[in-house]
Amino acid sequence: MKILHVITALNFGGAEAMLSKLISEHGGRAGFPEASVLSLQTPGTVGRQMIDSGVEVDTLHLHAARQLPAAMARLVRIVRRRDPDIVQGWMYHGNIVASVAAKLARGRPPLLWNIRHSLGDMSSEKWSSRKVIELGALLSSGPQATIYNSEAALRQHVAVGYDPAGALVIPNGFNDRHFQPDVPEGRLRAGVRRQFGIDPSPTLVAVVARHHPMKDHATAIEAVGRAREMGHDIHLLLAGSGTDALPARLTEACRRWLPEDRLTLLGDRRDVADWLPGCDVVALSSAWGEGFPNILGEAMASGVPCIATDVGDSRAIIDDAGLCVPRGNPVAMAEAIAKLVEAGPAGRRRMGECGRTRVQNEFSLPIVARRYADLYDDLYRSSFRKPSELEVSQCAG
Length: 397
Fold this sequence. Notes:
With 397 residues, the chain is an alpha/beta fold. It contains 15 helices and 13 strands. The longest helix has 33 residues, at 330-362.
């Protein structure tokens, strides 16, 4: 079985990471599909990694509307050459182009969409994003199945007009061999502080998220500052694209809330698994847009307790492996940080162990990859009809 994955871009993001992990887990194994990838935009970091690992990657080099005619000509050639048995879209733009690709392909193969975004507040989206989301709603009866990575995203998209037929949830998957706890206890904790020049005494709170308004770094910065005012010595570490060159507004917030020696700005990192287990707490302050945040699964697999805003499925994901607070509320987040500081190393370790067990039982990469493979197999064998309610429930686990 040949599957063509169509994705908006192959830079470093949650959808790209999940696609890369899925292809790697399926790669060349009996019973799993043969995959190729089509990126609408020129491949970035994840795309180059895929190519280096032997994955066949094509691109439409589509970055502006004026490039659309040339991109569509490329699309025709690529689809005919790949001759897929299934077409799988990823993200809004990728889903729309996947719909076109499925119509161009020989035999009109089954079409799947994959939505990785929650819609807590449509007004928070850019005008162009709202229009693409609305177009997706109009076209949403086309795919045989639409995969969401969170229950919240499924409910929210159906509420704005997406077809509920064939909708199912398959969560993100995580490699618990790659993300592992700090064992023996304290080895990585000490190493991280040496590596990044951080004083060993404060509690280290990490926010691993690209700089984007939806990530709401201002809330995390203020929350750490307020927790410090409560008498706790805390060091804030920011990692993710753009965090090494914060805009003036966030730079001023850092000056307002944190001493210079209690802040580390790492920027984009590809070695997160190497140092994440050495952090004491991982915080996610997103204001909207999260479906299933990858960093929560990675932190939990690493045995690190989490604090997250109640966006997407974060509350259900964390369960008893951390704390969930209202979005845009630095006071509530500060109180949660203080609670984990006061729990001490032993309390945080127990919470982290709960998180790792939860990932292994519910969100391990082999389990999630098997769910995708079962869905592909069902669609391939079902004469291109939409899966029945029974089949969808079985795929959703």
